[in-house]
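HUMAN: Forgive my ignorance: could you write out one protein's sequence and backbone structure tokens?

ASSISTANT:
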Amino acid sequence: MEKEPSRQEDRATSLLRKQGMMRLSEFHEHGITSATISRMEERGLLNQLARGLYQLPDAPLDGNHSLVVAAKLIPNGVVCYDSALAFHELTDRIPPYVWMGIGQRDWRPKISSPRIEIVRFNQSEFTSGVDQHIIENVSVAIYRPAKTIVDLFKSGKRQKAFYDSNTGFAHATQAMKKALRLRMTTPAEIARFAVQSNVWEKIVQPRLEALTINA
């Protein structure tokens, strides 16, 4: 007769093959104990990616692997800012950490590894412009290009106010130019998100008009 720990290991392996990576709490929901997961890790049957997050050693890794890890650690979060921009291939920058957006009242998790920077959005901005992408069998919430560009303009506004720097505006403008050229968004979509974020008239509108006036 097959022993219960062995059956749990088989279930854990099967689940990981389907779901890509899982948190310890998700294993518990399927009746798989912490002791089983610990034994599997000791025997090299699974890898611990972060505290309480596991993946099979032979799992194929995507170029956006870090986004998947962040999404599993912050399941209510949305990939934003430069991380979203890099996912959409609208920047040559390699973000040193994963940018994740959460709601104003959402719990802010304490994560030591991997490096994650958390941004709070008000409710309307947080829930707008979100698309789900399947990466390594995991559904990852990522802001679409137009929303990401507008968020960067809003961040640039803060940089200008606090540090008198136009670097943020230049970065967002370059991304907007590329997104429009590649037809990944439209002026109307950018305008809609900009109005919602209160950065339309003085910030986004003149830069958008300069890019499209001769288009």
In short: The mean pLDDT is 92. The first helix runs from residue 4 to 19.
